[in-house]
């Protein structure tokens, strides 16, 4: 992110003010296809600064929101219509759309977590996402066609060995992945994910599919984005918070002004490979830091809820226990040492824990009622215990108390 003086100042979209911008102005037909475009420097005047929540209210037909933003209602509805067409085309070409829930952690003034709940993506979020994806694809295609040095966002084919494991698992549900898995088409993955939506197998299949995917990286070669089923893709829409986007803007502006000479091209060819490597590495670091902060705050939140009961579903299965994700998005571990009713073995092929004596199966996606057993804020760990085991402990304690009396 650029310094706050810039990101919240001259780069902020303040209502009633002019802002310099680099715009990708696209013409789209009734099917959502890009039929023409211009990439140029512009001046943008902000008529009204809207929030996602306000736009969602308008599109949901809220009377107060419709009255307050009456002059913009036709535009919002047109944006929604266009967004649906763009998304439909992306889906038809085979883009993989995972719907994993995100979590919002609310903090008080001291940074103490006071609430944790799922993040609800509204229609307005999808509109902006669809428009940004279209701009990113269009800019990438322009740069690739012009054969200029550029920073692309690429996503390679999934790992074939992991796809074999996925194929083995889904075959048990009557589903299949056919053909050469090292050159699989994204449409096959997208179809598989769609087929299990709303079924008990959805989490298992979606999780295993995601694990088979490669990580997207930055590169100087336009080799396409598998997950989006896009032959051209880059990051262009967030220059105040991502360095690759800012680098893309620099190159595009030099080209617009006719300054992308042979000397400047050689300059970029010399530095862009290193920029891509550093950007990809730092992206992984930032994602890791974000996950770690979430773990810290979630542990702090659950520290005061030991003994409370929650409902969740199994989000991970390992030899040392079950990971259970609660309805509010918090995940904890049920260690096998706390599962006293049997001795459990981990079956890697089907991602299950199976009891030796009772043949009880625990697998991804299964619902589970748990009690918070222990929290270690220093290690950021949360341990759960199955409610049935907790009830057994309580029953033993009550019987011991009664015996002493």
Write the layout of secondary structure elements.
Layout: H1 4-10, E1 18-28, E2 34-45, H2 52-59, H3 63-68, H4 73-92, E3 102-107, E4 113-119, H5 123-146, E5 152-154, H6 160-171, H7 186-195, H8 202-212, E6 217-219, H9 243-256, H10 262-302, E7 309-318, E8 321-326, E9 331-335, E10 344-347, E11 352-355, E12 361-363, E13 367-376, E14 381-386, H11 387-404
Antiparallel strand pairs: 1-2, 3-4, 5-6, 7-8, 7-13, 8-9, 10-11, 11-12, 13-14
Can you walk me through this structure?
By secondary structure, the chain is of the alpha+beta class. It folds into 3 domains: about 230 residues, no CATH class; about 55 residues, no CATH class; about 100 residues, Nucleic acid-binding proteins (OB fold (Dihydrolipoamide Acetyltransferase, E2P)), CATH 2.40.50. The protein is about 40% helix and about 20% strand. The chain contains 11 helices and 14 strands. The strands form 5 sheets. It has a 5-stranded antiparallel sheet. Strands 10-11-12 form a 3-stranded antiparallel sheet, with no helix packed on it. Helix 4 crosses helix 5 and helix 6 packs antiparallel against helix 8. The longest helix has about 40 residues. The radius of gyration is 25 Å and the shape is globular. The mean pLDDT is about 90.
Defining traits:
single chain; about 400 residues; alpha+beta; OB fold (Dihydrolipoamide Acetyltransferase, E2P); 3 domains; 5-stranded antiparallel beta sheet; 3-stranded antiparallel beta sheet; 11 helices; about 40% helix; about 20% strand
């Amino acid at each position: 992110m650029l310094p706050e003086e810039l990101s919240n100042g001259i780069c902020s979209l303040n209502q009633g003010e002019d802002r310099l911008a680099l715009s990708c102005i696209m013409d789209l037909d009734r099917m959502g296809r890009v039929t023409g475009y211009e990439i140029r420097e512009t001046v943008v005047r902000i008529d009204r600064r809207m929030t996602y929540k306000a736009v969602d209210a308008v599109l949901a037909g809220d009377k107060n929101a419709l009255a307050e933003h009456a002059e913009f209602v036709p535009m919002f509805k047109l944006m929604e219509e266009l967004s649906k067409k763009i998304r439909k085309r992306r889906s038809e070409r085979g883009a993989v759309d995972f719907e994993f829930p995100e979590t919002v952690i609310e903090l008080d003034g001291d940074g103490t977590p006071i609430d944790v709940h799922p993040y609800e993506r509204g229609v307005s979020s999808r509109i902006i996402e669809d428009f940004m994806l279209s701009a990113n694809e269009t800019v990438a295609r322009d740069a690739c066609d012009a054969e200029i040095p550029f920073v692309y966002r690429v996503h390679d084919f999934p790992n074939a060995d992991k796809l074999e494991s996925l194929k083995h698992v889904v075959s048990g549900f009557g589903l299949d992945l056919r053909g050469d898995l090292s050159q699989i088409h994204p449409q096959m993955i997208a179809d598989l994910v769609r087929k299990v939506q709303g079924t008990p197998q959805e989490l298992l299949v979606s999780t295993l599919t995601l694990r088979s995917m490669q990580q997207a990286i930055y590169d100087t070669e336009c080799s396409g984005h598998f997950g989006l089923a896009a032959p051209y893709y880059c990051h262009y829409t967030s220059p105040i918070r991502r360095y690759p986007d800012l680098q893309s803007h620099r190159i595009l502006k030099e080209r617009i002004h006719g300054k992308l000479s042979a000397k400047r091209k050689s300059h970029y060819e010399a530095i862009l490979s290193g920029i891509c490597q550093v950007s990809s590495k730092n992206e992984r670091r930032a994602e890791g830091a974000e996950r770690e902060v979430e773990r810290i705050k979630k542990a702090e939140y659950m520290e005061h809820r030991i003994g409370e009961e929650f409902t969740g579903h199994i989000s991970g299965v390992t030899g040392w226990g079950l990971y259970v994700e609660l309805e509010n998005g918090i995940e904890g571990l049920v260690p096998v040492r706390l599962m006293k009713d049997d001795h459990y073995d981990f079956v890697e092929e089907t991602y299950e824990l199976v009891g030796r004596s009772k043949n009880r199966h625990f697998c991804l996606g299964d619902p589970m009622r748990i009690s918070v057993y222990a929290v270690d804020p220093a290690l950021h760990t949360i341990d759960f215990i199955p409610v049935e085991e907790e009830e057994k402990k309580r029953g033993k304690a009550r019987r011991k108390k009664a015996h002493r009396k």
